[in-house]
Design brief:
284 residues, six-stranded mixed beta sheet, 10 helices, globular
Length: 284
């Protein structure tokens, strides 16, 4: 199989006009809850429970972006882990392309992972410093057994080109790159299986402001060219407003408000959303 054939085999199918059919949704979350037992405070007392998520519902259409905002401890990262099937919900379902990820047998879940990938917050910690960029980017193909080694190298070079890096960068190591370049490598790794969904957990919070804009513009361009959907976890309202079509505001594990970014941030209805908007720094 050539690189072109491989790319075509795993490319996202678009409907007429280059747009995805938004019905049914790509991602459907219903009644999602996650509770964690805490250490006992008294020897004979009941074990306390932390309710990290409480009955979260939402849909994400193909080719669209959904932002999730809230303060630390609001349940954003717990939601990301459950969508990525890295944790098990106490109750509720996460359906991607009609498949309940948490009910799939292990081999089926492994195969399904080519359709959803993740970009982490820390571009320094998420890349193995002992491996070359080529090996890092091709890792999902190797882990999922999607292509022979020679084709993995070709696909890694293609993914690096898509995020604006050169073919020669494939033989370098992560320490030879800036923070923004490392996050581009992380995005290339997420792209290599041609996923339908990318979960991005604070993907630019560790970067300088000028570099943040470059990475966000790259993500937006990739979405337009490849038909990606993003679930973007962030505490930064400006980042979410730049990239997302809809926003969920989370507080203490529940969704307290949702809507289009401009309308939501201009006229917030819930007191917690108003507090988030009021806390955004403004130039005098």
């Amino acid at each position: 199989m050539s690189t072109t054939d491989f790319i075509a085999a795993y490319a996202c199918p678009a409907s007429a006009g280059g747009q995805f059919d938004a019905d049914p949704p790509l991602l459907r979350v219903r009644g999602l809850e996650r509770s964690y037992p805490l250490p006992r405070t008294r020897l004979l007392g009941p074990r306390p429970v932390l309710h990290a998520l409480r009955g979260v519902d939402f849909d994400l259409a193909a080719g669209r972006s959904l932002g999730v905002v809230g303060e630390s401890g609001s349940g954003k990262s717990t939601l990301a882990r459950l969508v990525m099937a890295l944790d098990t919900p106490s109750r509720g379902t996460v359906e991607l392309l009609g498949r309940d990820l948490h009910r799939l047998p292990a081999p089926a879940l492994r195969a399904a992972r080519r359709d959803f990938q993740m970009v982490f917050q820390d571009p320094y910690g998420s890349l193995d410093p002992r491996h070359t960029v080529e090996r890092i980017v091709a890792e999902p193909l190797q882990a999922l057994g999607l292509a022979p080694r020679a084709e993995q190298r070709e696909c890694a070079a293609e993914a690096l080109a898509q995020v604006g890096l050169r073919a020669g960068d494939a033989h370098k190591y992560p320490h030879e790159f800036s923070g923004g370049q490392r996050q581009r490598i992380a995005i290339a790794r997420a792209l290599i299986t041609r996923p339908r969904l990318i979960v991005a957990d604070e993907p630019v919070s560790a970067l300088d402001v000028s570099v943040q804009a470059q990475v966000l513009n790259l993500m937006q361009d990739l979405q337009e060219r490849l038909g990606l959907s993003y679930l973007l976890i962030s505490h930064d309202l400006a980042v979410v407003g730049h990239l997302c079509d809809e926003v969920l505001v989370m507080h203490q594990g529940t969704v307290v408000e949702r809507g289009a970014p401009q309308a939501l941030f201009s006229h917030p209805e819930h007191p917690y959303t108003r507090a988030l908007v009021a806390a955004v720094p403004r130039l005098l």
